């Protein structure tokens, strides 16, 4: 029996080579992980886009099915035609009313903002308004309220007449009605004047 022994010494790898190999291995690992992360991100983006497109395809299929059902069912089309005819008849009935509103026969199409805005700018010394009524195509205004004295109501009527004259609203009458206050003394009753200006 013979045995062989190798007496030659094997040289080990230098330490720098081991370090270089470890660095290369680490860089390679980072590159593989980075590429994997990018691929994963692209994959999830593609999956989201696919899901969105599948939903859109599903909606289109449903729309096609609904159109197909409507095409096959003459009763559905007839019902729609009947509804359209009914709505056309109603719009033709409302056309004269709409035309009169646009022409101003039923009042100013913009409402009473001019009259109410002007009314708000007129000073009201020691009186308060209780009712305002605008009618006859915005050309008639009735103002009612209370004043402490007759003179205040008359002065207010003159200010109304002067302010509203450019709008074509004319105030021709004032009604004054004194009313005793409920909590006034019996020997010297306090009164308030109810007024209507029209």
TrEMBL record:
Coiled-coil portions: 43-70
Keywords: Coiled coil, Membrane, Transmembrane, Transmembrane helix
Regions crossing the membrane: 16-35
The organism's place on the tree of life at top rank: Bacteria
UniProt name for this protein: PilN domain-containing protein
Gene source species: Ramlibacter aquaticus
